[in-house]
Amino acid sequence: MTDMPIYMHFLYATIATVGFSVFFNIPKSALIPAGLTGGIGWGFYYYLINTSNNDILANFLAAALVALISEILARKLKYPAILFVIPGIIPLVPGLGMYNTMLYLVQSNYELAISKGANVLFVGGAISLGILVITSLARTLSIVSLAKMHKNK
């Protein structure tokens, strides 16, 4: 990681997330909230990686935070949560790790390729699991509240 202050990480991640949001044709009114979601997720990841030095846990918790913010924004702004989740996790995707895995394979350094590739797979799994846990919890709470409403009628 670089020696930039955390607010610069937040700013650059927000700008990158807005850029990907434009690429994904997200409605204009959702661009800033989507960008802030990615910036907050990356800022949280950056804080966790500097304090815990556990890449997998930091990605899991950051992805869970992105999913939680996305679920909240989806209800407030009346958009699907996926509009905020996908751009929001873009800064968390381990692109450098994927690149290094392929580089080590091309260089026939299979030991490093397997090590780096396994880490990339675990990080990707942690990101997916973080989103899955929060999204499943939100859907379960939504179903329970709908069932209570039907029961009361």
From TrEMBL:
It is a multi-pass membrane protein. Signal peptide: none annotated. The keyword Aminoacyl-tRNA synthetase does not apply. Residues 10-136 form the Threonine/Serine exporter ThrE domain. The chain crosses the membrane at residues 6-24, 31-50, 56-74, 81-100, 120-147. Pfam families: ThrE_2. GO terms for biological process: succinate transport. InterPro entries: ThrE_2, ThrE_Dicarb/AminoAcid_Exp. It is found in: Cell membrane. GO terms for cellular component: plasma membrane. Keywords: Cell inner membrane, Cell membrane, Membrane, Transmembrane, Transmembrane helix. Belongs to the ThrE exporter (TC 2.A.79) family. PANTHER family: SUCCINATE TRANSPORTER SUBUNIT YJJB-RELATED, UPF0442 PROTEIN YJJB-RELATED. This is Membrane spanning protein. It comes from Romboutsia ilealis.
